[in-house]
Amino acid sequence: MVLVDPASRNRTIRKARLDGKSEMTQSLGHKNSKTGRTGENDFQNRNTNASLPAVTPETPIHQVRFAGIDFESAGAAKGRTDVPVQIGLADWSMGSGHAEAFGSYLSTSSPITWSARKVHGIRDEDLEGAPSLLELWPTVRDRLSGAVVVAHGKGTEKRFLRAFPGHGFGPWVDTLLLARAAWPNLPEHSLSALCIHRNLESRIRDLAPKGSWHDALFDTIASLVLLEDIVSSFDLGNRPLAELVFPDTREWHQQRSR
Length: 258
Hints:
The chain is an alpha/beta fold. The protein has 9 helices and 7 strands, in the order E-E-E-E-E-H-H-E-H-E-H-H-H-H-H-H.
């Protein structure tokens, strides 16, 4: 059930408590086997709780906490940098399932373009009284620190998170890249098209009953449900985490055909 605090003045649009909550905090350390380098968003040592065991590229996927994120934006305009106007955050792990989810409008001085509003339906007046992205830093930090971060087409999310220099979030799993590799012959790999094709939409609506496509929280949950479907369909629970970060789906298909 979606919970909304009517007394809140920050225009938080959605704060959902879903069954269970993963408490995992993990460290990540890995060198990209393809580049030989440890990049900003590859595996790095980010242990936020020394009492917990480190997560490595070999850690089984079933032991990992995944944190999904999605932004909706004001839209690009000539001479103006695009900015976020809505954020969604949610957790999923094989052990704890889908945990707490959080969504909020984001204040901005940039007007929402007509083309962006046509996509997500967010109006300038919806942002009145909303917190800024910087004001939500404690929430973003607590949700993403120590987790493997998930997004569908991660470029936008990584770009907007540059508002927090040196945040160290990651590594990243991109469900768009995973889906293209897993089902290359599908005519479309947008998040909505994939979830409808995989018969996942009812599951997503159960978890986000008031949402719709291009709502940041709804899309965040959808990306995690899609990841859950990929892990289940290709029986990846006992496979190493690196296979999601640097996927080689030839092994997935070989394992599935056995």
